[in-house]
Design the sequence.
């Protein structure tokens, strides 16, 4: 299996531009997570999907951020308009979860290589 | 607000020594714990998971969980320079993983 695939690996853009990050989860996994990592805040969960349905987007920082998962093999994270403070590494992860009961064990999350975003 | 606390380090140990990494968490409902390792410029990768109180050993790694104290640790025996990385503690909370900011470990040859 190729693992979680993310593109692009690096993105440099100017403030105000639209940025779209892409993710292909591991085949057969039914949960997908978008994270943002910075030195100051560490690894933050932005949003996660289960069976293509957004379950929790409370980590999405602003309305400028949006995420979609049109099918089981593809997800996008869009920032419009982008700002310099959005500069970070964005990771996508996937897992094969057994359920949504928060008392059950959470399955291992497998991370993609990340997209390093720089907004000038 | 669920919180995970880790000493940010850097923790520096000589090659061959035992490295001890600690993590405390606020969610009493957490039933399992994950330790991820992240090399500089790379993505996090799972190295250990533990589901019950006590110790779990896997090669040079031992995870220790104390649910009553809401404390989990990771011991690395015979530390190698290749163990130099940031180690992230991740207890689950409400179906997700809440990651600590990580402890940076440096193993000196």
Sequence:
């Amino acid at each position: 299996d190729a693992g979680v695939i993310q593109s692009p690996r690096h993105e440099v853009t100017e403030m105000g531009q639209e940025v779209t990050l892409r993710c292909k989860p591991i085949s057969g996994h039914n949960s997908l997570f978008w994270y943002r990592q910075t030195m100051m805040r560490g690894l933050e969960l932005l949003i996660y999907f289960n069976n293509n349905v957004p379950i929790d987007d409370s980590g999405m920082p602003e309305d400028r951020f949006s995420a979609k998962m049109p099918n089981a093999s593809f997800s996008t994270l869009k920032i419009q308009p982008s700002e310099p403070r959005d500069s970070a590494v964005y990771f996508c992860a996937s897992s094969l979860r057994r359920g949504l009961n928060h008392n059950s064990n959470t399955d291992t999350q497998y991370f993609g290589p990340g997209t390093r975003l720089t907004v000038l | 607000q669920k919180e995970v606390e880790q000493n940010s380090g850097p923790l520096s140990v000589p090659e061959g020594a035992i490295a001890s990494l600690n993590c405390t968490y606020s969610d009493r409902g957490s039933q399992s714990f994950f330790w991820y390792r992240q090399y500089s410029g790379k993505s996090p990768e799972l190295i250990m998971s533990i589901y019950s109180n006590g110790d779990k050993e896997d090669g040079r790694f031992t995870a220790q969980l104390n649910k009553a104290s809401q404390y989990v640790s990771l011991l690395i025996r015979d530390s190698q320079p290749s163990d130099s990385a940031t180690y992230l503690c991740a207890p689950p909370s409400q179906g997700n993983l809440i990651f600590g900011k990580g402890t940076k470990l440096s193993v000196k040859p």
